[in-house]
Amino acid sequence: MLFTAHSYYSLRYGSMPVDQVVTEAKAKGLREMVLADINNTSAITDFIRECKEHNIRPIAGVSCHKEGELQYTLIARNNQGFREINDFLSELNIKGLELPERAPELGQVYTVYPFDAFLLQDPNPKTQIPSPKFQISSSREDQSSKEIGVEQPGLRSHHASGLASLPIENRQSEIGNPLSSSPRLFVSLPPNHPLLPMEFIGIRHHELNKFITSPLRHYPGKLLAWHNATFADAKGFELHRHLRAIDNNCLLSKLPPSQLANPNEVFIAEAEAQRRFSQYPQLLENSRKLLEQCELSFDFKNVKNKKTFTGSRYDDRILLEKLAMDGLAYRYGS
Asked: Whole-angstrom Cα distance, residue 21 to residue 5?
């Protein structure tokens, strides 16, 4: 099961300090967890320390939100992936750029899109189901030569529901490595191309009813069982509501539901997660194998500070004086 959590470093959203996030996870018997705060990774080092003390395997991530709504979650596969996430966030902040609708292709980072971000589409355009974001269609042929919305031979339509399906022999993905991409799953975003090997779709418990009739169920290799925790209890949810109202500068009664986390975003035990997804063991297995690929390690014991910067104390003093004079001229003029 992919467990993610927000701390109060998710400003005006999360309600728990980092140590409470870890103790709540420990109380539920979790053995590994992703801390994915909103648009920042400031709490990761404290999170790793706390996890080590409670024998929980820490994994670093970030929830990328735009205008208060989740776009995707980035999960670092290793230290290099953690650096790639930070470089991505830093570039957005320094250049004042907006969060892209589709996550960048980062070499050591997994991307998990929310289930409700997609438009499920039948090849027949008359049977589209409206949605504001992504589009998915199905194809039996090679992904490099096909475009969205072109009807393919062998593809059958459920005209009553407007959902696309594949013949029985193609409904199960031969994934081998569950982290490989499905060649029949397409996402329509500029530019149009399918989900990449490091991109997945997270399915939460309250979305299973919609998932039962979704064409995505035919592509288990790209789906993950996912649960996110934002607060510890009902009191934490009320705090969350007030924080969201502050962020949106509105009354609680005027707060749009899209700006709130699901009230069920509390910590649950691993056994409960297994029970909720008992009808979908492939999703649980995909989540487990993805998390197995993730490993983050920091050395907090050895001092990393250099004794000298240039190689000698004298040269350090000369450099410091030069930088101070340069800064003086920059700040106050010559």
From this structure: 7
Surface-to-core class of residue 142, CB atoms within 10 Å of its CB (0-12 exposed, 13-18 middle, 19+ buried): exposed
Q: What is the pLDDT of residue 120?
A: 52
- The 8-class DSSP code of residue 254 comes to G
For the chain, what is the domain count? 2
**Structure-token match 């967890």, residue found:** 33
Structural domain containing residue 284: 2-292
List b or e across 149-188, with b for residues whose CB sees 16 or more CB atoms inside 10 angstroms: beeeeebebeeeeebbbbeeebeebebeebbebbbbbbbb
Looking at residue 9, which CATH number applies to its domain?
3.20.20.140
Q: Are 289 and 178 in contact, with CB atoms under 8 Å apart?
A: yes
- For residues 219 and 121, state if they share a domain: yes
For the chain, which ranges sit under pLDDT 50?
Answer: 122-193
Q: What's the pLDDT score for residue 328?
A: 94
pLDDT digits (tens, 9 = 90+) for 277-293: 999 999 999 999 999 99
